[in-house]
Amino acid sequence: MSPKLTIMVAFFLQPIAFGSWLPQIPGVQERLSLGPAELAMALLGLPTGILLMLPFAGQLVGRVGSRNTLIFGFPVFLALVPLPVAAPGLASLFFLLVLLGIGLSTIELGLNVEADVIEKRGTVSIMNRCHGFWSLGIMMGSLIGAGFLALQTSPFVAIGLLSLVLIPISVMVCRALPVHEAPVTEAQPRSSWRRPSPGILGISLFVFGITMTEGAVADWSAVYLKDVFATSGMATGMGYVVFALMVSVGRFVGDGAKERFGSVMLARVCLVFALSGMVVVVMAPVTPLVYLGLACVGLGVSVGFPLAVTAAADLGDRPAAENVAILSFIALLGFLVGPPMIGFVAEVLDLRSGLATLLPALLLSILLAGLLRPRRGA
Q1: Three-state SS across 215-281?
Q2: Distance between CA atoms of 143 and 10, rounded to whole angstroms?
Q3: Which of 16, 127, 350, 368 is the most exposed place for a label (fewest CB within 10 A)?
Q4: d(C-alpha 4, C-alpha 9), whole Å
């Protein structure tokens, strides 16, 4: 396979096992007898692990290279994925999600940096398509997880077997990536955490509302369908499947749309779809409208993060790996803030009100989309 196709396959493989965990969240909540606020606190573990690791992940990828990061990171990450479904209590669920977040942050940074290097050594944009394959992977994983629910299969055994199958395949794919002649980043002073520039801060704030929405849909869509609309079995997990499908559709057409309309216009139009879809989700009286709203949200947020990664890597004020790490660190605060905020609001009011808190964040992203305009000479 060509390097472009190889990195796309790696993006596809990475979230499959993780996606199969998402439909299991309502079952874990019920088994552990967790209220909305308690579940929100437990779900904080994943973004906490991501944020703890990202300051070091940028240096790691810069020193050992994105290819080596992926070869050794995939088995570790996949071994961690099945553990949260077997957590015996609230504290252990939080801790296991922290470990999973540490593995996730490292491997996702490696994927993004590798994709950026391959894109810059070619002649066409691939970042949106790479993330499109990621969305297809998490959609497939969510569909598999929903199938586990329908078959009443032990989630720990099922996700564990899925991870075991994926480990040798993913390592083989990552070993097929090209060996770069030099490290992905040039040698830099050890103080990699210099003060972030206004440019990277602005781009990170743009993507904040997008990642906040993505994290909220991942953590709460199944719970929302189960608790508010009394869905059961496969229908509970289908909300995220629909969302992920539309994310992948948007990302597969995103590179062409970016070339035709430009990053700024593309981002603004898509985010209007996301904002409108979230209004539908919050106000929907019946389940089909929730699916429709989630489809609009998925299409709307699809291109935001890939566009932000490219814009951050092109800033030129520091190595691409460092800027992407800073972007990820700040943007993933959305994953940190979103789930507990929704859970705490749901505890006081209801889950519809909790999801409505995403609307101002999406509006902020629309207003900041102009920061994606390409730099001269980039």
Answers
A1: HHHHHHHHHHHHHHHCCCCHHHHHHHHHHHHHHHHHHHHHHHHHHHHCHHHHHHHHHHHHHHHHHHH
A2: 19
A3: 350
A4: 9
Is 304 within 8 Å of 271 (Cβ atoms)? yes
Q: Show the 3-state SS of 125-186.
A: CCHHHHHHHHHHHHHHHHHHHHHHHHHCCCHHHHHHHHHHHHHHHHHHHHHCCCCCCCCCCC
Local confidence pLDDT in tens for the 378 residues of the chain: 788 899 999 999 998 998 888 888 888 888 888 888 888 888 888 878 887 887 787 778 778 888 888 999 999 999 999 999 899 999 999 999 999 989 988 888 888 888 878 877 776 777 778 878 888 888 888 888 878 877 777 888 889 999 999 999 999 999 998 886 544 444 344 444 456 677 778 888 899 889 889 888 887 888 888 888 888 777 887 888 899 889 888 888 877 888 888 888 999 999 999 999 999 999 999 999 999 999 999 999 988 888 888 888 777 666 666 677 778 777 767 776 777 788 888 888 888 999 999 999 999 999 998 888 766 444
Both tokens assigned to 248: 């992948």
What are the DSSP calls for 99-124, one per residue?
Answer: HHHHHHHHHHHHHHHHHHHHHHTSSS
For tokens 């991870």, what's the residue?
163
